[in-house]
Design brief:
cell membrane; membrane; mainly alpha; AA/rel_permease1; transport; 19 helices
Length: about 525
């Protein structure tokens, strides 16, 4: 998952059409993150295969499918709208809830990276490494920064926008450039790389099942591209230019990930790779080699700024999406409370409480690495539930609403949709299954406990929205809700849905909400 991980990106306030280059850069900045590179550096040259596989079966399908859904169903609601149009509000609520809860689970892992970065601002690398492995130091930083970010988010969009404005450039683009340039300079200067450089190393050894376990998390590296699909209507000649921009941004994203991962693999021996420390250690080793030791603490601070500034923004994004769904009548009035700045304070506080409880896992499991890996995998699993629903909805809507106007449509007719959407669905399903398998490269304590915790948490978070949905009441719908009715509630679209009274379709049931009028 990207550390820029932009959620619920607001439409650009501009009348000027976006060019190919602008859209490509927007997507690269939205997706690229550096914190997960050490996980893939474990695989050496074979990481190239995994990056390309995930790009073909996930990154490109997500981008193109989301563009069609965002332009075809541009009413408020996002993923809730898209899945609801296909399968009704019950599964739509599950998709929206997955988006919100996976971000909540993701926060401790992102902030762990920030805490580790802060640990490396000292002059002694050995002492820095020891501090970065201290569970209580990590826990204290995660809790302090997240609650601070929450209170900043209370102040509204303008406040947290000012805090996060330059975070992506300072904390991602500049450090990525430095990492790649120094890593390949180290190799080209004649130093012996820590990995074998031969073509036979590119294709993984599929007889060793462990090779695909950690690689499943690579799908989350590419997550977030769907958030910029909302801007497709602002692109000049979107039918031609948007796919080109997607291909360019996909290429740029893959190059940064591949080259950055290889740069780490050149310098850090595979046996010494640590998911939370190796990026900083690689920087330190490269700076020592280049005689630029003074840049080590500077880069560590820059990486921390990138994560911290991003978190301030991300704290508010998913909660705003959930607030829209709540006001539409799918969550109790308590969830709909907002302050003078229009921020969903109760949702933000609940989110902060959940983040705090998850962060406490850092002092329960045997190592920071173990918790980092477990929460990262849980994030992948929950996010992939949402993506599976999104791909399924896109495939279904091509048949249930074939005449719906779509300013951008995946080329190739229904066959093209089945190829692109089908590839995304199958790729997401494979990653979903592999995410439950404990990696042999990392000490996670008892493998049974590791898998058991992942399964239990996944079931809990998937069942919870259904339980909430079952007990919903008509009084939950806010008087000022501007959530437009689904197409099938207006009597058009899928005949199987529109033939029923509004509110009874797709499992709404007898206790369903009253029909929603157009705003």
């Amino acid at each position: 998952m990207s550390d820029t991980h932009t959620r619920n990106t607001p439409p650009l306030a501009t009348s000027k059409k976006l060019g190919i280059g602008t859209v490509a850069i927007m997507n690269i900045v939205a997706v690229v993150s550096l914190r997960g590179l050490p996980a893939e550096a474990e695989y050496g040259l074979s990481s190239v295969f995994y990056y390309l596989f995930a790009a073909v079966f996930f990154l490109i399908p997500v981008s193109l499918v989301a563009a069609e859904l965002a332009t075809g169903w541009s009413e408020k609601g996002g993923i809730f709208r898209w899945v609801g149009e296909a399968f009704g509000p019950k599964l739509a609520f599950l998709a929206m809830f997955m988006l919100w809860i996976e971000v909540t689970v993701w926060f401790p892992t992102a902030l762990t990276f920030a805490a580790v970065s802060l640990a490396f601002i000292g002059p002694d690398q050995r002492w820095d490494e020891a501090l970065s492995a201290n569970k209580f130091f990590i826990l204290a930083i995660v809790l302090a920064v997240y609650w601070l970010a929450t209170f900043i988010a209370f102040r509204g969009v303008e406040t947290f926008a000012k805090v996060s404005k330059w975070g992506g450039i300072i904390g991602t683009i500049i450090p990525a450039t430095i990492l790649i340039v120094l890593g390949f300079s180290y190799l080209f200067a004649g130093n012996t790389p820590q990995i074998q450089l031969s073509w036979d190393q590119v294709v993984p050894d599929f007889t060793n099942f462990d090779n695909v376990v950690l690689a499943a998390s690579i799908f989350l590296f590419y997550a977030g591209m769907e958030m910029n699909a909302i801007h497709v209507t602002e692109v000049d000649n979107p039918k031609r230019n948007y796919p080109i921009a997607i291909m360019l941004s996909a290429l740029g994203t893959v190059l940064i990930f591949v080259l950055g991962t290889l740069a780490i693999a050149f310098v850090i021996p595979q046996a010494d790779i640590n998911l939370t420390q190796s990026l900083l250690v690689a920087y330190d080793d490269m700076f020592k080699w280049a005689g630029l030791e003074w840049l080590g603490p500077v880069t560590a601070v820059a990486l921390a700024i990138g994560v911290l500034a991003g978190v301030v923004t991300w704290v508010a994004g998913p909660s705003s999406g959930l607030l829209v769904v709540a006001k539409a009548g799918y969550l109790p009035r308590w969830w709909q409370h907002t302050n003078a700045h229009g921020m969903a304070t109760h949702i933000l506080l609940l989110q902060a409480t959940l983040v705090s409880l998850l962060a406490v896992l850092f002092v329960v499991l045997p190592s920071v690495q173990a918790v980092y890996q477990m929460l990262s995998q849980l994030t992948v699993i929950l996010y992939l539930v949402m993506y599976l629903l999104m791909f399924a909805a896109a495939l279904y809507l091509r048949h249930s609403q074939p005449t719906r106007a779509r300013p951008y449509r995946i080329p190739g007719g229904n066959f093209g949709m089945w190829i692109i959407g089908g590839a995304g669905f199958i790729g997401s399903l494979l990653a979903f299954v592999f995410s439950f398998i404990p990696p042999s490269q990392i000490s996670v304590g008892s493998p049974t406990m590791y898998v058991g915790i992942l399964v239990a948490l996944t079931l809990f978070f998937c069942i919870l929205p259904f339980l909430i949905y079952m007990v919903r009441k008509p009084s939950w719908r806010a008087e000022n809700s501007d959530f437009a009715p689904f197409t099938w509630q207006t009597g058009v679209g899928d005949p199987a849905l529109s033939a029923q009274p509004a509110g009874l379709s797709s499992g709404l049931g007898k206790t369903s909400l009253p029909p929603i009028s157009k705003s």
